[in-house]
């Protein structure tokens, strides 16, 4: 399966024109929107700390049945489209109150690009995953982007309650370009584990990544 | 000249020491230090005569300053002496007090816990021409001289576990234990075996350890000190400190600081208020004797002090051992004449064999129990009239006689008879079964009789709940509240009358337990009308005259209508009588002081006399009350001794935690319980996140102290739901209480 260059160009163009992700903040339930605690353009922060124990910036207060609730930011970014006309008024549930524009970091752009471009091997079940010993040895020796996986070759081991099930590569001969999981940590079903591509696509992908690095310098 | 240089260096060290203790701006100490440094630099330049003259002048000045410094020492300066790097440590004691020693369980950094040192040592005494050698186990904290890995003597949980292991070895071998306490406090981490739980286990074991134990306190920091402090005789260095909390910690609490350092003035004020010096502790009765040190504290080279310490340790061990012996009059007399003020003699004069017989061990344990039960009892306040006091006393005596007869005489003989009858029945059944079984089978087959279904020997019935459910006053508000887990668990808003009424303060979606007032438990947990409080007249006082504490106490009394944070009462659950000791949050956050400790001990005694199970219901406890200083700390060993005696006599002791439970009580009479349960959403541990951050330098996750994590670490035996608390307790009483319901 070859890479769709048109699709990649469109993706990069879209990221360039809107280098952020928009998160709409909606009311969780009906109630009176008592007060806005932010202004248009205010920088807000999402939950922080090692365990995300520090709550995000307070955005507005919503009251229902004498229960005044402070709605806090779940991502960091800048406030836009703040609907000031709602202040002091009754609002329905799921009403969009404001937007948080979350600027994409270099890592996030690369991750989005790779998820769109690579052939992904996802976790079939929620379990711990390991690279097959042979593959791991080769990656350690040669590095990512250089190790081939042939059809019917064992690439991963799924470990669940001490039972180990091998995962076999079913497609054509490809190269392992990216590993998305940490060995011995539980991966939720459906999350990507490995990203594969054809050997001739590797230089192109590396070029695009270095371009992204230039365009989105690390802050 | 090199001799003068050495003397100058020594003098400079002494001056620097005084400056460290009294501060740079005290008198002319900084100038003296400056002159000494200058003189030392010019030692090879100046003429000898002038050098000598200036040296003598500076020495005279320094001696005068040292004398003045010793006379004007404040409690906080004593704390600084105790923490000074030049102060003697356990390693110095092992080198200079004992004849020889072998360190056990590690050496230096290669150690299970370098902050705790254990050694098998020999100590000798001369009587006439004879030299007698005694074997002892030495256990103590090692602060080290600047070694970071010792963590200033803060024992980790496994360090205290190591201490306990060697205490048991000493018991097996029948040799006395000498404890040396040099700790600012235990290392507050929850990793198994857990800081609090291990201290509790140590105290529980030490309460009945069958060997003489002597402890010497140089730096006695609260729970960490108690982990090896429950001794038969407690000595203290004259320039040491023994306190419920470090002055800095007390200041942070007083200033309600969440981070950062408290102001210096407040720290000094707290050090004064805490009454932490040796003289204060002797006056309060929390120690037995003071070992005199040089006026500004003993340092590594003070060999005279080590000689004195050796003499005092032998004298103390002799005293403890002699109290157990029947033939002791003359030796006790000779010993009583050694009052500590005399010069240390070369010839000790008397010899006492430190080995104990089985009877003597029993006497030792009785003496220990009596000692801790009496310790600090003078500070208990009570408003009871003389008539009521005698009424309570006669009631207790009546209970003792009645239950003594009922369980001690009648029940015992009844039990013996029943057991004999049971044995006879089983024996005869075993004898006749091979003969009767085939006959029975044939008969059943012919008559068509079906096999009998086995009969249930005992079963657990669901107890009837109180007829009329008590509803918390919190439920009277017409509004909704948000569950703290709403974001992560998607809990809907809860209508307050529902939440505090039907749901018993529990979120029906995630099971989060909202805090409830203690009256809810009194009314919904126990049978209606069965709660009968006793010793309610015992009240918290202000034994240290801690500034501002009397007002705080008066406020708590007024708002709660109670005299202390501990309620002790008789109650019933599904008809089962039990004794309950309850710490309530409303009175000074359920902190434990003298009155609370005394009430708990009396509850243990009543449970023992009446053969009832004992339930410690902890609505909340914030630890030991700092305003009562070491009188508060000694409630840890006191209550643990009472619990141990209750459990040993066959009682069932259950602890139930709710809301927040921290520090001293968890590290003693609660943590030592064989059965500990917590309600969901409870937080329990040794120290809070601020103390952990400041001690270890690391943040802890928000759920570090949760009941689930405590269960995971093995600190508790189960997590219960408030909605079925009554049933759970009833089941626990029946299943853990065994066949006789609640008493072995």
TrEMBL record, chain A:
Xref: InterPro entries: Single_hybrid_motif
* Protein name, as recorded: Uncharacterized protein
Q: What is the lineage of its organism?
A: Bacteria, Pseudomonadati, Thermodesulfobacteriota, Thermodesulfobacteria, Thermodesulfobacteriales
From TrEMBL, chain B:
> Which parts of the sequence belong to the CoA carboxyltransferase N-terminal domain?
487-744
**GO MF, one example:** acetyl-CoA carboxylase activity
Catalyses: N(6)-carboxybiotinyl-L-lysyl-[protein] + acetyl-CoA = N(6)-biotinyl-L-lysyl-[protein] + malonyl-CoA
Q: Which PROSITE patterns match?
A: COA_CT_CTER (PS50989), COA_CT_NTER (PS50980)
Give the EC class as a word.
transferase
Question: Keyword annotations for this protein?
Answer: ATP-binding, Cytoplasm, Fatty acid biosynthesis, Fatty acid metabolism, Ligase, Lipid biosynthesis, Lipid metabolism, Nucleotide-binding, Transferase
Q: Name one GO biological process term.
A: fatty acid biosynthetic process
Where mainly found? cytoplasm
Documented EC number(s): 2.1.3.15
Pathway per its UniProt entry is: Lipid metabolism; malonyl-CoA biosynthesis; malonyl-CoA from acetyl-CoA: step 1/1
Domain CoA carboxyltransferase C-terminal residues, every copy: 57-324
Any one cellular-component term (Gene Ontology): acetyl-CoA carboxylase complex
Localisation per UniProt entry: Cytoplasm
Give cofactor(s), names only: Zn(2+)
Cross-referenced PANTHER family: ACETYL-COENZYME A CARBOXYLASE CARBOXYL TRANSFERASE SUBUNIT ALPHA, ACETYL-COENZYME A CARBOXYLASE CARBOXYL TRANSFERASE SUBUNIT ALPHA, CHLOROPLASTIC
Q: Which family does it belong to?
A: In the N-terminal section; belongs to the AccD/PCCB family. In the C-terminal section; belongs to the AccA family.
**Briefly, what is this protein's role?**
Component of the acetyl coenzyme A carboxylase (ACC) complex. Biotin carboxylase (BC) catalyzes the carboxylation of biotin on its carrier protein (BCCP) and then the CO(2) group is transferred by the transcarboxylase to acetyl-CoA to form malonyl-CoA.
Q: How does it assemble?
A: Acetyl-CoA carboxylase is a heterotetramer composed of biotin carboxyl carrier protein (AccB), biotin carboxylase (AccC) and two subunits of ACCase subunit beta/alpha.
Instruction: Output this protein's name.
Output: Acetyl-coenzyme A carboxylase carboxyl transferase subunits beta/alpha
